[in-house]
UniProtKB/TrEMBL annotation:
Gene3D superfamilies: Cation efflux protein transmembrane domain, Cation efflux protein, cytoplasmic domain. Its main location: membrane. This is Cation diffusion facilitator family transporter. Belongs to the cation diffusion facilitator (CDF) transporter (TC 2.A.4) family. Keywords: Membrane, Transmembrane, Transmembrane helix, Transport.
Length: 392
C-alpha cells in the first residue's frame, strides 16, 4: 500500500504516534503530498479547461488550487499546534489544529460561492465546448488521483486522530464527485449543444458548498466543546473501576484541548471505613497509571460511601425503585442518610438526560415529586436532592 510505504520511509518512529514530534511529521507529510498532488491537478485541469473552453473544468481546476492552499494551512496548523505549553496556554496549543481546519472549511465555501456565480454566468452567456478525448482521459486520471488522496488523508487522519486530516479526506472525496460530473459534462458535450457545463458547474458548486459546510461543522464542534468519544469514555470508566475499592464513578467531565490533549475529572465512590491514607494511595496510583495509559490528564475526587449499613442499603434500593418511575432520571449517586432518631435526611444526586430542557422551576418540581414518592414509604424521611447533568 502506497500510504504505508510513504509513512514508513518519510516518518521516523512512525509507530510512536503519541509523540508530538511524530504526530507533527504525519501532518507535514499529508500536507506536502496534498500540495504536490493538487498543484499538478490544478495545472492539468486549467490547461484542459482553457483548451476546451469549459467553465466546469476551469472551476474544478481552481478548486484543486484551493485544496493546495488548504494543505499549506494544514502544515502551518500542525506546526503551531505542536508548540509547547506556556503560561497563557497551560494545556498547549493543540486547538490550533481545529482552527486551521475551520479556515480550510471557509476557503472551500468561498470557492463554492465563486464557482456558482461563474456557472450561472455561463448559463446566461453560453459558449461552445470543444470535445477532445485526451482531456477526458486526463480528467479520469485526476479522479483516480483524488480517490487515492482521500484514502491517504483518511489513513493518516485515523492513525493520529486528526479531525483536520479526516476533513481533508472528505474534501478530496467531494472532489471525486465534482470531477466525475465535470467528466460527464465533457462527454455529453459531444452530442448536446446547450450549455450543459454551466448546469453541471452548478452541481459541482453545490457539492463544494456541501463539503465546506460539513467541514465547518466537523471542525467547529471540538472548539465549542463537543461530547467526548463514547469509546474513550467507556475505556476510561473500565480502567478506573478495575482498581481495588473503587466501587463506582460519577460526575465525569472531559475537556479537549486538541488531539491527544485531554483533561478528565471524576468522582470515585470508595468505602468510608478504609484508611484515608490507603485509599489516597489507590486514587493516586489510578490517576498516574490511567493518565499514562490513556494519554489524559486525570484528576479523581474521592467520595466516601457507607455500603455496610443495613438501613442505608435497604433505603437506597427503595429509592432506586422509586426513581425508575421518573423517565428523566438516568441515575443517582452519593447516597447518604444523615441525622439521629426518628427523623432523618436522605442526601443524594440524581442525573437527568440532555433531552430534558429543565429550568429551575422544573428542577424544583422534580425534587418535590421525588420527595412525595419517598414519603409514601418513609413519612419521616426528608430527601435533599441535587439535580445533576451528564457531561459525557
Amino acid at each position: 500500500m502506497l500510504s504505508k510505504f510513504l509513512v514508513s520511509h518519510f516518518i521516523k518512529n512512525h509507530e510512536n504516534i503519541n509523540d508530538n514530534k511524530v504526530r507533527e511529521a504525519y501532518g507535514y507529510l499529508a500536507g506536502t503530498i496534498g500540495i504536490i498532488s493538487n498543484l499538478i491537478l490544478f495545472l492539468i485541469k486549467l490547461f484542459i479547461g482553457l483548451m476546451v473552453k469549459s467553465i466546469a473544468v476551469t472551476a474544478d481546476a481552481f478548486n484543486n488550487l484551493s485544496d493546495a492552499l488548504s494543505s499549506i494551512i494544514t502544515i502551518l496548523g500542525f506546526k503551531l499546534a505542536a508548540k509547547p505549553a506556556d503560561k497563557e496556554h497551560p494545556f498547549g496549543h493543540g486547538r490550533i489544529e481545529y482552527i486551521s481546519g475551520l479556515i480550510i472549511a471557509f476557503m472551500v465555501m468561498l470557492v463554492g460561492f465563486e464557482f456558482t456565480k461563474s456557472s450561472v454566468n455561463r448559463i446566461i452567456h453560453p459558449g461552445k465546448i470543444n470535445f477532445h478525448l485526451v482531456p477526458l482521459i486526463l480528467i479520469l486520471i485526476s479522479i483516480l488521483a483524488k480517490i487515492w488522496l482521500s484514502l491517504f488523508n483518511k489513513y493518516i487522519g485515523k492513525k493520529i486522530n486528526s479531525s483536520a486530516l479526516e476533513a481533508s479526506s472528505l474534501d478530496a472525496l467531494s472532489d471525486v464527485i465534482s470531477s466525475s460530473t465535470v467528466a460527464l459534462s465533457l462527454l455529453l458535450s459531444k452530442w448536446i449543444s446547450f450549455p450543459i457545463d454551466g448546469y453541471i458547474g452548478i452541481l459541482v458548486s453545490l457539492f463544494i458548498l456541501h463539503s465546506g459546510f460539513s467541514l465547518i461543522k466537523d471542525t467547529i464542534n471540538p472548539l465549542l466543546g463537543e461530547a467526548p468519544n463514547p469509546e474513550f469514555v467507556k475505556k476510561l470508566k473500565s480502567e478506573i473501576l478495575s482498581y481495588e475499592h473503587i466501587n463506582d464513578i460519577h460526575d465525569l467531565i472531559i475537556h479537549n484541548y486538541g488531539p491527544g490533549r485531554c483533561m478528565a475529572s471524576l468522582h470515585a465512590e470508595v468505602p468510608c471505613d478504609i484508611s484515608i491514607v490507603k485509599i489516597h494511595e489507590i486514587i493516586d496510583k489510578a490517576e498516574k497509571e490511567v493518565s499514562k495509559k490513556l494519554h489524559v490528564f486525570l484528576v479523581i475526587h474521592m467520595d466516601p460511601v457507607n455500603n455496610n449499613d443495613d438501613e442505608i442499603i435497604t433505603t437506597k434500593n427503595e429509592v432506586s425503585n422509586i426513581l425508575k418511575k421518573f423517565d428523566e432520571v438516568k441515575s443517582f449517586h452519593d447516597f447518604r442518610i444523615v441525622g439521629e432518631g426518628q427523623y432523618k435526611n436522605l442526601l443524594f444526586d440524581v442525573v437527568i438526560g440532555f433531552n430534558c430542557n429543565f429550568n429551575e422551576k422544573d428542577k424544583e418540581n422534580l425534587v418535590y415529586d421525588i420527595n412525595k414518592e419517598i414519603k409514601k414509604f418513609h413519612p419521616n424521611y426528608n430527601a435533599l436532592v441535587t439535580i445533576d447533568r451528564e457531561y459525557v
